[in-house]
Design a protein that fits this description.
Elements: H1 4-20, H2 29-39, E1 40-49, E2 56-66, E3 72-73, H3 75-84, H4 88-105, E4 111-116, H5 123-134, E5 143-148, H6 156-169, E6 172-178, H7 185-190, E7 195-198, H8 215-224, E8 229-232, H9 238-247, E9 251-252, E10 261-262
Helix pairs in contact: 1-4, 4-5, 8-9
């Protein structure tokens, strides 16, 4: 069991990371103030095994920010503002600190932490995250790092090296929102991902190819060539769940199964540390 000092150190990292967002600038001052006044938190949404009695594989942590007027800032809007302000690394570091802190508090949980691919664009930015992980090696087997390509990756080879370094540390690596934005099949060839998450857009595209299968089926089969765990995101009704299972998804995520819940209010069930 880790000492209270470990938890205190992680708590201090969270406080420091909050203060690092938008330092010394008036840009987005309301957002900066809300973050520093603890309006920033995490919600968790489980990923379930697709089998009939499927249990929880892990929970994805989603950034949540309550604005000064009491309204909630949508995750995509928050990420967009932060990236445009050049603070993607600061946000990633903050979220990582909070996720590690939660893993230290709850020894039964497995959590996913979203990181922007731009954070790995240079050795300097990557070292910030690396230091956080190296200080907490005992937590890494219960950490899934979800990599989101919101911007184009300038150097695929370097990115693949970083992804493989993360796996060597003991983390599991997931490619998020595969099939949309800048997510590229080339990454699947270069890096050893443990998990591929198919973007929900393919659940809404039911056009059939000449072979009788839809695009979701083909995306799942493509991802399955490179890793054993394929998650279909955005499952909102029974019909979509049936299509995802028919396509061969091993795991599912979406409002039909569970909505995101603030971590502080969630009683975390015991989760697996190995794939189902």
């Amino acid at each position: 069991m880790q000492s209270a000092g470990v938890s205190a150190t992680l708590g201090e990292e969270v406080a420091v990371a909050k203060g690092s967002l938008f330092p010394g600038t008036s840009q987005n001052s309301g957002l900066r103030t809300a973050i520093r006044q603890s309006g920033f938190g995490l919600a968790a949404q489980p990923i379930f095994a697709a089998e009939a009695a499927g249990g929880i594989y892990y929970q994805e942590c989603l950034a949540r920010l309550v604005n000064l007027d009491g309204t909630e800032c949508a995750t995509n809007d928050l990420i967009s503002v932060v990236e445009n302000a050049g603070a993607a690394l600061a946000l990633d570091s903050l979220v990582m600190s909070m996720v590690l802190d939660r893993l230290n508090v709850d020894r039964s949980t497995v959590l996913g932490c979203n990181l922007s691919a731009t954070t790995f664009a240079s050795p300097k930015s990557w070292r910030v995250i690396l230091k956080q992980l190296e200080r907490n090696p005992h937590l890494l087997p219960r950490l899934v790092i979800e990599i989101t390509e919101t911007r184009e990756i300038p150097d695929f080879s370097y990115f693949a090296e970083v992804a493989n370094d993360l796996r060597d540390l003991g983390c599991r690596i997931a490619l998020d929102d595969f099939g949309t934005g800048f997510s590229s099949p080339r990454l699947l060839q270069l890096a050893d991902f443990d998990i591929v998450k198919i973007d929900k857009a393919f659940l809404h595209d039911d056009r059939r190819c000449s072979d009788g299968h839809d695009s979701l089926w083909h995306m799942v089969k493509l991802a399955s060539c490179f890793c054993d765990v394929v998650v279909v995101e955005g499952v909102e009704n029974a019909g979509q769940m049936a299509r995802a299972c028919e396509a061969g998804a091993t795991h599912l995520q979406g409002y039909l199964l569970a909505r995101p819940c603030p971590i502080a209010k969630r009683h975390s069930p015991t989760m697996s540390t190995t794939p189902h």
